[in-house]
Specification:
436 residues; alpha+beta; Aminoglycoside 3'-phosphotransferase, Chain: A, domain 2; 2 domains; 5-stranded mixed sheet; 5-stranded antiparallel sheet; globular
């Protein structure tokens, strides 16, 4: 792929501009490779119209008959969403992608979608439409959207979201029918970590499709293959854009309990459990750093003080956070299953949901939230049948599990805001370990 007209981006013009734009260049290079030409203009907003994109005078190389234009829709504290410049598709993409929690945010998204669909003037939408990306693909060029059209045997429009900086950042493509109706999502594994996560999610969803879950709805696998060395997983679109229903604690506990039992439950003393053996091996495989040394020391104390405690082991989602689920009139919808695993202590999902809701959802000080996690564990895990001693042990193991994941993924090196365990997780682990 060739990039042209790469305008210098004014400060604040595109959310998270330097990192996000560099990632945008890299991902487009993979998804729309040569001889396709991609033109980025972050100074001039896309002109939303009734038809698909076409070349405008002075906008770069002539577009092929299948050339198309995308608009960059600004996100609040997030990188922009790249959507088709055709106004009906743009409005539908924003509506289907957005999951605002507050009434005011929902009203803002609705107003934006109405403005996009109505074709409001460029000036009126300048605050939201921050730039454009043009794709000119010669006839027969291999591109990700053409690959997906062939794989799914249908015409598709594609939007793309990359997410904030982190080791597991990868393109997530939102697929739409020409009418704007949702057609699914495609996750693209682009490096060793993300390729392994996409493979893991495929395996997890195939397994869960056979589990006949009653409390949880998961996406269906529509297609899975490799394309140009990338892992491609296409999933059905869960209707997360529906009006939210209040999520009550008993419903969440029932869903997490059901998931824990999909591969069966077993009880084992921690000291001789397969879980502790696997956790030690994963930690030992991380880079030799002071964080690894500290966690190895803590894990030794945990095993010595809590090794005779019997824990119930089962499955967990691995990242059951408020933004990976939706409570709707159609039931409890849960997605992003790339961290699914079996043979972990019962209660991990509940602890993760609580911690992530505090740290990310309410922007609580991460270290304070991590310190409170073991203290609150007896109350939070009582609905799962855990004794106070089992709950505290489960909480310190969960924090160690999360810290080990961050080290294994090298999240700090990738620039993830909470990627360094020493700043918030390790202090909580040492304090909780001392109280076992």
């Amino acid at each position: 792929m060739s990039w042209v007209q790469q305008a210098q981006v004014p400060a604040g013009e595109v959310t998270g501009s330097p990192d996000w734009l560099a990632c945008l260049h890299e991902m487009c290079d993979l998804l729309w490779p040569p001889p396709t030409v991609v033109t980025l203009d972050s100074k001039r907003p896309a002109r939303l119209g009734l038809a698909g994109s076409r070349r405008r005078p002075g906008s770069g190389p002539a577009a092929a008959p299948d050339g198309r234009e995308f608009a960059l829709i600004a996100g609040l504290r997030r990188p922009p969403l790249m959507v088709p410049a055709e106004r009906r598709l743009a409005a539908a993409a924003v509506r289907q992608h957005s999951r605002p929690r507050s009434a005011a945010a929902r009203m803002s998204v609705r107003a934006l979608c109405l403005g996009l669909a109505a074709g409001m003037g460029d000036n009126a939408l300048r605050w939201a439409v921050r730039g454009r990306v043009q794709v000119a693909a010669p006839a027969g060029a291999g591109t990700i959207d053409e690959h997906l059209k062939t794989a799914l045997s249908r015409d598709l429009a594609v939007s793309m979201y990359l997410g904030p900086a982190r080791a597991n950042r990868k393109p997530v493509l939102q697929l739409q029918a020409p009418s704007g109706e949702p057609a699914g999502f495609a996750k693209i594994g682009v490096n060793p970590l993300t390729r392994s996560l996409v493979r893991a999610e495929h395996e997890a969803l195939v397994r869960l499709s056979r589990a006949q879950l009653a409390e949880v709805t998961v996406p269906r696998v529509l297609h899975y293959d490799t394309w140009r060395g990338l892992e491609v997983l296409v999933l059905s679109a869960l209707p997360a854009w529906l009006a939210p229903h209040r999520l009550r604690s008993p419903r969440l506990v029932a869903a997490m309990t059901e998931l824990a039992g999909v591969a069966g439950l077993r009880q084992e003393p921690l000291a001789t459990s397969g879980y502790l053996c696997r956790l030690r091996a994963r930690l030992a495989a991380t880079d030799d750093t002071p964080e690894r040394t500290a966690l190895t020391q803590a894990l030794g104390v945990i095993a010595a003080r809590g090794g005779q405690q019997t824990l119930t082991l089962g499955a967990w989602h691995g990242d059951w956070s408020p933004w990976n689920m939706a409570s709707t009139g159609n039931g409890l919808l849960v997605w992003d299953w790339e961290r699914f695993a079996t043979g972990v202590p019962l209660g991990f999902d509940a602890l993760h949901h609580q911690l992530q809701a505090e740290v990310v959802g309410t922007r609580t000080d991460p270290r304070a939230a991590a310190l409170r996690c073991p203290e609150r564990a007896p109350r939070n895990l009582a609905p799962f049948g855990l004794s106070p001693a089992q709950a505290r042990l489960t909480a310190v193991l969960y924090l160690t599990e999360l810290a080990t994941r961050y080290l294994a993924d090298r999240q700090a090196q990738a620039g993830a805001p909470l990627g360094s365990p020493r700043t918030w997780l390790i202090p909580a682990i040492f304090q909780a370990t001392a109280r076992l």
